[in-house]
What does this fold into?
Amino acid sequence: VCVTCKHKFFLYGGRLTVKFSGELDDEREIITSGAFSKDSTFMVLGTSLGKVLTYRVSDGELESQPFQAAGHDIEITQLVTLHNIEDNEAFLMVVGGNGLQVYIHNKRDGREVDYGEDGQAYEGSPICNVQIALNNKFFMIGIPSKRAIGFFGLNRAQLSCKPLKWVTKVSLDLSFFSN
It folds into this structure.
């Protein structure tokens, strides 16, 4: 379990004892999101300055340089692990609360998700949540300001996305859940 507070974090393991803790170098930078790799060997933390930091769970060491996923003034607001991807460690990443990317950790690559022709009206709108199907073949996003839910297909080999359907006139609160 990872607990964050502003620029500090604590990783608990076993019987909820602190395995390691740390803090970001810049106290003005805040941890805004986080996720574990599919095998829990590392965790990624998104920050208020658009960075993705990676820490090894075994020893708490920071791996390499942070990945700059967005501009220095655009925060990473959500990271969601894609579990059933064979050759890559990948995450869905919400940037600035309204942009969606597939972040491929081992390639240090962020790919914007195309909303498609029907989804043009929803691009740039605030995303309240991202939910991935257990098989990682599909995911959905909620756009409460437009009362819309977008469904996407995910090619697990190429890590590319395709918009499938937009459902409108739905009532969303900020904590919707789907499965």
In short: The longest strand covers residues 160-168.
